[in-house]
Structure to design on (327 residues):
């Protein structure tokens, strides 16, 4: 596998063998870190992290991964960069590409990270856009493989709003690696038809199956992995919650839904999760709508079936693999 100089924008750009290679590399680097073995193979390199959307896991994962590899990091939040405001994306890319060995972008449209990649002259990595979240999928696949010992013959079900980055990227990842994928949500809340068609072509070659269901019990039957995400995206107003909650509540991951999956099934979530009222926004929503949880109940989130924190840790190991492979 030779990915040196490649951008990491969407898993659509990578072969199943390349994706598996990145997961294998992440596992190797994780073993080294756990054993205290130094692996600062990128000593002297410097990367820029552009965050137009805030994050805990993505920022910390990129920074720790970079430090472990011996690199220096510059973090640019929305107030620390003129990208798209006083300086065009193309000009920003050409400046940063002269100063840094690689650039990460987390923000809004996929077109922005694609524009950065077009002009930077150095590898550009997608930390999250509205359409795709490829580093999360690498972490998810590593976590599933660690738990079950294999990805073969596994059935993953995504519950809730299936229109955006997580359902899109999970569908791509499953299609590439041969997992059976089911998107389960209300009618009209599924991925874009053109992306579905593209993934069906990929799935036909890998042996994967893609299903789109509106019935949660039908979708979750005999599932190996039940996956969900928040129902309202970052930046959406409070007014959006009432309509979305009413629509999505039947797709909440609870004990009944998990019991319908395989006895060995696991629960996954990219985080943060509204599983209790222990956050400011969670408390506000809970009081307003008289709910003690949203997309997943606390009972499931805190259960032995939940592997969300293994998944969160693996963000760092898989991001480290991407940095190492592309630099």
């Amino acid at each position: 596998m030779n990915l040196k100089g490649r951008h990491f924008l969407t898993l659509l750009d990578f072969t199943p063998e390349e994706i598996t290679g990145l997961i294998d590399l992440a596992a190797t680097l994780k073993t080294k870190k756990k054993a205290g073995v130094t692996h600062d193979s990128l000593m002297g390199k410097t990367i820029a992290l552009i965050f137009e959307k805030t994050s805990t896991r993505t920022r910390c994962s990129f920074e720790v991964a970079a430090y472990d590899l011996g690199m220096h990091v510059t973090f640019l939040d929305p107030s620390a960069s003129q990208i798209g405001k006083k300086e065009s994306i193309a000009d920003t890319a050409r400046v940063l590409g002269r100063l840094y060995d690689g650039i990460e972008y987390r923000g809004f449209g996929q077109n922005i990270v694609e524009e950065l990649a077009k002009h930077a002259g150095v590898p550009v990595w997608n930390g999250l856009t509205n359409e795709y979240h490829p580093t999360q999928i690498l972490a998810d696949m590593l976590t599933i493989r660690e738990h079950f010992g294999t990805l073969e013959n596994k059935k993953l079900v995504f519950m809730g709003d299936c229109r955006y980055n997580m359902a899109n990227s999970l569908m791509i990842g499953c299609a590439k690696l041969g997992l059976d994928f089911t998107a389960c949500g209300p009618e009209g809340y599924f991925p874009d038809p053109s992306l579905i068609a593209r993934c069906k072509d990929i799935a036909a070659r890998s042996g994967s199956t893609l299903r789109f269901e509106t019935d949660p019990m039908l979708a979750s039957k005999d599932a190996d992995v039940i996956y969900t995400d928040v129902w309202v995206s970052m930046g959406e107003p409070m007014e959006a919650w009432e309509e979305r909650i009413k629509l999505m509540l039947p797709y909440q991951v609870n004990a009944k839904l998990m019991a319908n999956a395989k006895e060995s099934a696991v629960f996954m979530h990219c985080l943060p999760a509204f599983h209790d009222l222990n956050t400011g926004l969670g408390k506000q929503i809970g009081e307003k709508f008289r709910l003690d949880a949203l997309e997943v109940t606390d009972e499931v989130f805190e259960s032995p079936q939940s592997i969300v924190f293994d998944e969160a840790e693996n963000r760092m190991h898989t991001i480290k693999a991407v940095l190492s492979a592309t630099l």
Q: What stands out?
A: The mean pLDDT is 95. The CA atoms of residues 139 and 303 lie 20 Å apart. The chain is about 45% helix and 15% strand.
